[in-house]
Amino acid sequence: MATTSVSLPAKATPAALKTRSESQWAIVLRRFRRHRMAMISLAILLVIFIASLLAPVLAPFPRDAVGLAPRFSPPLTVHEGKLHVLGTDHVGRDFFTRLLYAARITLSVSFFVATLATLIGMALGALAGYFKGTVDSIVMRALEFMASIPDFPILLIIASILVTDPELLPIPRFVLDFLGTLMLLSPVGNERAQVVVIIVVLTVFGWTGAARLMRGMVLSVRERDFIEAARALGASDAWIILRHVVPNAFPPLVVSYTLSLAGALTAETALSFLGIGITDPTPTWGNMLQFATNFMLVNPWVPLIPGLPVVFASLAFNFIGDGLRDALDPRLKM
Amino acid sequence: MTNYLIRRVVLVFVMAVVISLASFVLLYSAPGGPLEQLAALQSTTRRPDPDEVERIMKRYDLDLNMMVRYLRWLVGHPRGPIVINGQEYFGDLQVGCLKEGQARLVYPDGRVVEINCAKPVFLRDLAGRPVSNGVLALDFGRSQQLAREQPVAELIESRLGNTLLLMGLSTFLAIALSIPIGIYSAVKQYSRFDYFFTTVTFFGSGMPTLFTGVMGILIFALLFQRLGLPYLPSGLAVSNRDEVVPLIGTIKAGSLLDRIWHLVLPVSVLTFFSLAGWTRFIRSSMLEVLRQDYVRTARAKGLAEQFVILKHALRNALIPFVTLLASVLPTLFGGAIITESVFNWPGIGRLFINALTASDYPVAIAYVLISTFLTLIGFLLSDVLYTVVDPRIRLT
To answer: Is residue A26 part of a domain?
Structure first.
């Protein structure tokens, strides 16, 4: 009897403790899971992501093979014993195949643009906010400059020049090889260079938001007592920035990162749609949409095929950003 | 304030010089530009005709020094030697070189100078050579591809009306709708109305205008036409021929009704998009103001709720709205590039895209220069207005 009465609380205590001491991230996760739209969005994005990851396996036809079936065959057409799930485009290429490859390219471009822009913005914003003085005024002038130019037209003009003549931008070989392999691009022609050009141009015009956010956060965090304490204990500037300042400025940055994924995705789609970004035969949702709209008076279902993924992905990133905002800091809720 | 204004104007000036220099360099080195034409001419299989090469070089000022070329592009000068009282000055100043090589110059006063140029160009030679009035005088030269030899300014002018109409109308509608919706959402926070519009605006700002436009065409133009409902046109600003629309009747091509009919869809798409952002903006601004102590004081004094909201709260909530001016001014001129492209709207934004895809850089650069200038003015204006509407803010 005595033994059992001792063992029971011993078993119960860790469990009881566990429920009480949730880690910070567990709380965030729990709150995030309550946001229904964000969870649905996450699921949709996962499906798109996995499909694009398995593109070479799932795709029933070669990416650029033309004349597989009559032009604009409707979805579920069977031609010569082969099924075209989403039909064919204006030169008889399989829509489903191209959609998969396009997802891979579009998502990778958005990922690299958002990540690079956020990292650059974070670094510059942190340096400006932490050191103030000259560094700050240089970064601030750059931000002011970027804010006072019409960024979209200038971005378009630079992109159009670089896309027609990618040799103007010296790109290291390994970058081309790496991105080419990742996005399954052909090494002949300037397909790979075009993608790199778009990533670079969008990044150059995309870092300001993160920089401004980071600078503001750092300016408020650096005055707190625990930073003073860390400095008194002899911590170096690099240590303080990386271990104390950055983690505290993290929540709004995560939200802004998610939203900049959506921004990069729409920007890339818009560029390709306008014929100034990645051009056919490299498939992206944007340039597929461009061709689709050219023929939509006769084939009204066609724009939906590349259009719906764009909207789903863009809205999904927005919803996830919204969910993260609620989860990370309820005070930020709109 | 004065200090601030001086600093700001200096910044505008510096930016203008930087952007104009960058544009100028772009204009000449861009693919498809005059340099490339020249290279193409020189690499043809037939022997390059030296006269032809010289003609092109003179036509595009390629024989002049970079600085002289830039000045001629920017202000339309120098146009030849300076003449004062019939006396020529600086006529002997070398401003460029038509052909590389070596040459000896023998001046009338007996000086002999060796130069690295076989055919030097002197200031005197510029007299009578065609030149624009300079970008500063809004003379952007002539279009190279889209409408050969038509002045860029004329091309822009011909599209300006369409863009002003589209942008003006949608901006007006967006402001007129977003203010009441934003206020009502904030006052009745978490009500059904608020939830509905928060969701709508969330979709509005999350959906690319590209897709909203395409969907609009699919549903209201194509689907409605097939169903026999009164449909909307899928693009352009006026019809090419008379259209018979169910329930409305015949719409004569080029009539007022035709123009309005074509405006509905693009204006709605643009309004929907700006409405989304602005409603959120006003709602959150209003929510913040409603929490202020002075609003509670106003209520405690027993003022009517309507009075508290419209007089006390709204005035302060609208202050940040002034900053939107900075973004409105350039878009009024520049148009919505994507929406105009989706709807084939013959406006300036589409002109810009056409110019880019045709490598017509004089047109593209004119667009960028004017937008840059308007953006800078917009910022200046919104900053100054800010101090006018909010005396708490002092620019230093």
So the answer is: no
Using only C-alpha atoms, what is the Rg of chain A?
Answer: 25
User: In this predicted model, what pLDDT tens digit does every residue of B170-181 receive, in sequence order?
Assistant: 999 998 999 999
A83 belongs to a structural domain:
no
Which one, of B260, B231, B262, lies nearest residue B244 by Cα? B231
> How far is Cα B136 from Cα B194, in angstroms, rounded to an integer?
49
Give A5's pLDDT tier (boundaries 50, 70, 90): very low
- Count up the domains in chain A and report the number: 1
For residue B31, the distance in angstroms to the closest alpha carbon of chain A comes to: 7
Percent of chain A having pLDDT more than 70? 92
CA distance A56 to chain B (A): 28
Q: Is residue A43 part of a domain?
A: no
Task: Report ipTM for this prediction.
Answer: 0.82
User: Measured between beta carbons, which residues in chain A are less than 8 angstroms from residue B330?
Assistant: 150
**Which tokens is B354 given?**
């056409």
Are the beta carbons of A296 and B210 separated by less than 8 Å? Answer: no
Beta-carbon neighbour count of residue A237 at 10 Å?
Answer: 12
Please check whether residue B345 is in contact with residue B235, taking contact to mean a CB–CB distance below 8 angstroms.
yes
The residue ranges of every structural domain in chain B are 13-75, 82-128, 152-389
Q: Write out the CATH class of domain B152-389.
A: mainly alpha
Whether A64 maps to a domain, the answer reads no
Range of A234's domain? 99-328
B338 and chain A in contact, CB less than 8 A:
yes
What does pTM read for this prediction? 0.85
Q: Is the confidence at residue B26, as pLDDT, over 90?
A: no
- Summarize pLDDT for B31-44 with one digit per residue, the tens: 666 677 777 766 76
